[in-house]
Amino acid sequence: MNFDGLDPGLGEYAPGLHGSLEPGLDSSLDPRLDPSLLQGVELDPDGLVVPESLHIVEGMYSELHSVAAEVGIPVTATYFDLQEELLWMGNHRGHASSFFGPTMGRYSSFQVHLTDDIRHIQSMDTGVLFLTKNNLKCITRGGWIMFDYPAEEGADMHSLLLTDNNTLLMGGLQNYVAELDLTTVQETQKFTVEVPGVAIMRQSNRFFFCGHTSGKVSLRDLRTLKMEHEFDAFSGSLSDFDVHGNLLAACGFSSRGLNGLSCDRFLMVYDLRMMRAITPLQVHVDPLFLRFIPTYTSRLAIISQTGQCQFCEPTGLASLADIFHVNTVGQLLMSFDVSSSKQALSFGDSGGCVHLWSSAPEVSFNSYSRETELALPCLVDSLPQMDWNHELMPLSLIPMPLTSAEPLLSDWATNLISPSPRRAPPVDPEILRTMKTVGFIGYAPNPRTRPRNQVPYKIKEIELDYDNYNQVPESPIGRDEEPHLYMVPKKYRKVTIKYSKLGLEDFDFKHYNRTLFAGLEPHIPNAYCNCMIQVLYFLEPIRCLVQNHLCQKEFCLACELGFLFHMLDLSRGDPCQASNFLRAFRTIPEASALGLILADSDEQTGKARLGRLIQSWNRFILAQLHQETLEQEGPQAYRGASSSGLGSAESVIGRLFGCEVENSSLCRCGKETVRSSMTLLFTMHYPEQSSLDKTIEEYDFADILKKSICLEQSTQAWCDNCEKYQPTVQTRNIRCLPDVLVINCEVNSSKEAEFWRAQTEYVFNSALKKEAAEPPKPKEPLPTEWCLEEELCSAEGLTFDTQAEDMRHVWIPLSLKMCISKTQGLEVSRLCVGELTESEEAEGASIYDLVVTVSHIQDPRTGGNLVAHIKVGETYHQRKEGVTHQQWYLFNDFLIEPIDKAESVQFDVNWKVPAVLYYVRRNYNAKYDLRIKNPIEPSVLLTEASLARKQRKSHATFIPLMMSEMPQASDLVGLDAEFVTLNQEEAELRSDGTKSTIKPSQMSVARITCVRGQGPNEGVPFIDDYISTQEQVVDYLTQYSGIKPGDLDAKISSKHLTTLKSTYLKLRFLIDTGVRFVGHGLQKDFRVINLMVPKDQVIDTVYLFHMPRKRMISLRFLAWYFLDLKIQSETHDSTEDARTALQLYRKYLELSHNGRQDEFRKVLKALYEKGRKLDWKVLDIDSSDGQGSPKRTAVFPSVMGL
């Protein structure tokens, strides 16, 4: 209780009011005093003295112990810890101390605040809360600060109330009660209360009780804190009150006219069942504190400021025999508390002393206290003496310092001591498929695959990618080794996004990617190809080709790749998503026929054979891009756009990857058939092993590659000469070398994996022998040192290491030399020196450098994933980092990390299996035009026909732009989008009741509206497109989107229906022009549309009218408050929302004109205050209750005539 605001004269009552227990007064002066109370107490002028030997009678309270915390500093708060046997005190100078047990041994002591007094103390499991005038601190019981929360400026806090484990209410002499979330240490909401505020708070299972300094006690709703009843207890001021069962008792001060306030000796008692006062209780002391102490009966303890204490029943009569006196030696009592066990009372006085009274000889503060952690005693002086001259004295008892640098036997590896809890089995896909969701709970029929309410103890590991091949080898003693012996490094593991209430806003992508290159998000269906998208992006001719390509096909992978690569160019380290590309990919019939479209269950359970899948995808995408760029139906133009600067785009894929091959078929009759064709990639073929001889011979990678390119095999084929199928020998030879050599490794079974492992062991053993014969060489610098490969780095600071270790698990070379000679045909060999000789150049030899390796990571715990090692060239570093440099990187979805070049060719097939290799001819970029000319022209904004058959001009909801209205840089455009749901969110309910999102709902854009932001037609839409979709819509979200079933169907829709690509091009043109988009919540809109917009081109009203650490405000409430507009009454309309956002931006410019930030901050505070009062609900505009918004602002005049 804070006494700063009390009248100083309150303690100066007439002596007759206090009885005769005041110091210096004879007991005979008060005939009502029971002499038995003074047994063992000697009165003298120096004050009361308690004898040392004190016998405690069971059931009667007697002084047990007193201790002086800080002499002369008033004790403003005492508190019994609810978790441990500790008594806390806080004094007038902001210092806190704790005392252990009934002996009051000092446990801890620390400073809470430099100047302000401690007004309230509250204990929790993890620490103790201390409240001062305008500050709340949580400190551990040992004195370590957990958090420090400052209250708002001008606050005068007095009381705390812990409503549950994580929620706290703070009240004081201001017109609000603040609710604080102790988990995030943020204010969640404010409840408005009447002036002069709340000084005391209590809680029952029905109400919150707030005591006011005006003498009133209000009863409030537990959830909303709205006042439901009020007791006007005292005419002066309230001192204290308490609640027990159906009774509320209060003490306070009454007004005596001109004489000020006087302590009222009548306690007000209220029956909470009938909500009325019962007979007041007259007591014989001047009450300052009171508490219910319900042991056998509901008795009250009433405490006066001078130290008198009286016990009485709230519904009976007070007896003089129930009075005892706390020996304060002339000091006034300032604080009082009762332990949870009701066995102990604590008093704090103005002299700095804390008094502990008890009703039992063996007192316990709590019924079930946990053990208090005490400081360990010093053991140095208590060690026994040792006589090392004794023959039987073991030398191990003599402590010795550790001087050896060798590892200890107890230093186990991290993977051996890390806890590995048993994971729960995945939910049966059949259950997920048939599940119906009601709220956040799913219901599904029992598939009867296992006994009811039973889960197998040992979870069977999922099938591995190899055919009948166990990834974990047998140990030498014949038993299976544990999977953790082949732990996948952390950076190679499957990365997942942890979703919170805010979605992706608070997920730290920078933790996984500290570069400026953009990663790709993995949660979209069929996102297994993310690594190959990155591979194509970092091939400069491919990037330029698809960004210059634009055609009229609705689903063109080359166009979608161009749009996606444009986003990757704009991103500065933020992840992108390939949702539009994958949407088009799912519509290609060839992709479905090749089995490249995965079902959700296959992705979740890890049953997809990702190694084979990505190699098939690699073959498909090259053929698809080649076909799409060869088409002549306007590959460079879209609705009349002129041709771009890339003159021979139709031949770029063929020039890059194409290799003319000659297929010869020789029948046994001697007839030879020769056919010519073009291939875009080659597949590795490994030599057949004899079933008798299990020893695998040593082969060089270059020899295997040559045999795979110039393939010779025997097969049955039709012979025109023999007129039947005959055994034929088919031979393949190449006539030219491609600029980019693409290789599918085809390591799909245990046989190929064993062959690859044997070759890596041969290479490693050879390197060991070579190293033993040569002196060690300095190891190359790490990739993070950003040192060019051609530079000669100084040996200073470099560690000398063997090169043999870098050759572990390595078989493929970083560079190859290839040429086609007229005599010997194709020749392939490892490149031993850096450059070609003149004679080799004359023969037409070329150097091929490895730039890409794609690997299948086999992790039984996650089902596996695909990663890519990519050698990023100088032009990309120049654009992103501003340095000229070449560097290898690991791309694992949104995880991007620089790696050493040796790591890019290391394949431990136990968990890292090679899938795809890309070799490029050195300096091949010089042959291609790498200029990018934006193919999107203003004509995309002109009038276009609707896909809907029933759409009429009379139904037009927008006016297209004229050529004279084409937007310029920095023009304003209001934008809003509406969405529908394609897949529902997948979430699980944790044991603590919280919801965890496993996979977010998949949204698709259904309507996009853009309105003019300036000019005579300001506010008139020029784009209002409904997006046709071929995918099944699960939920139209009509209440929030305004989209109804049938609006997106071309057969029955009356809306202006277009393709997503058409509308996407319009928005891309606006972005490239440099317009500024104005809207509400644009971040989500652009994310679902799959657009990357520079931050300086986005004006989001959700952030313009937002205060830090406060909630986001809806567009509906902002429109009502600032514009006096009532929008979104029944459903959302994107035209209305976009127009309203523009008006709000104009209002923002008006409020913050000429840098009036202080005034604008006051406007925001008033906005939040209004929102809290109305619970963020919009009132009726025409209501006359005084709760209306500011004056109505005019709607755009041009809109009224639309």
UniProtKB/TrEMBL annotation:
Catalytic activity reported: Exonucleolytic cleavage of poly(A) to 5'-AMP
Binding site for a divalent metal cation: 976, 978, 1085, 1137
Cofactor(s) needed by this chain: a divalent metal cation
Annotated SMART domains: EXOIII (SM00479)
Subcellular location(s) of the protein: Cytoplasm, P-body; Nucleus
InterPro entries: PAN2 (IPR030843), PAN2-PAN3_catalytic_subunit (IPR050785), PAN2_N (IPR048841), PAN2_UCH_dom (IPR028881), Papain-like_cys_pep_sf (IPR038765), Ribonucl_H (IPR013520), RNaseH-like_sf (IPR012337), RNaseH_sf (IPR036397)
Superkingdom field: Eukaryota
Cofactor binding summary note: Binds 2 metal cations per subunit in the catalytic exonuclease domain.
Keywords: Cytoplasm, Exonuclease, Hydrolase, Metal-binding, mRNA processing, Nuclease, Nucleus, Repeat, WD repeat
Segments forming a coiled coil: none
Class of this enzyme: hydrolase
Gene Ontology terms describing biological process: mRNA processing; nuclear-transcribed mRNA poly(A) tail shortening; positive regulation of cytoplasmic mRNA processing body assembly
Domain (USP): residue spans on this chain: 518-922
GO cellular component: nucleus; P-body; PAN complex
Its biological purpose: Catalytic subunit of the poly(A)-nuclease (PAN) deadenylation complex, one of two cytoplasmic mRNA deadenylases involved in general and miRNA-mediated mRNA turnover. PAN specifically shortens poly(A) tails of RNA and the activity is stimulated by poly(A)-binding protein (PABP). PAN deadenylation is followed by rapid degradation of the shortened mRNA tails by the CCR4-NOT complex.
Record comment regarding domains: Contains a pseudo-UCH domain. This ubiquitin C-terminal hydrolase (UCH)-like or ubiquitin specific protease (USP)-like domain is predicted to be catalytically inactive because it lacks the active site catalytic triad characteristic of thiol proteases, with residues at the equivalent structural positions that are incompatible with catalysis, and it cannot bind ubiquitin. It functions as a structural scaffold for intra- and intermolecular interactions in the complex. The linker, or PAN3 interaction domain (PID), between the WD40 repeats and the pseudo-UCH domain mediates interaction with PAN3.
Family: Belongs to the peptidase C19 family. PAN2 subfamily.
Name of the protein: PAN2-PAN3 deadenylation complex catalytic subunit PAN2
Biological source species: Triplophysa rosa (Cave loach)
Higher taxonomy: Eukaryota, Metazoa, Chordata, Craniata, Vertebrata
Gene from which the chain derives: PAN2
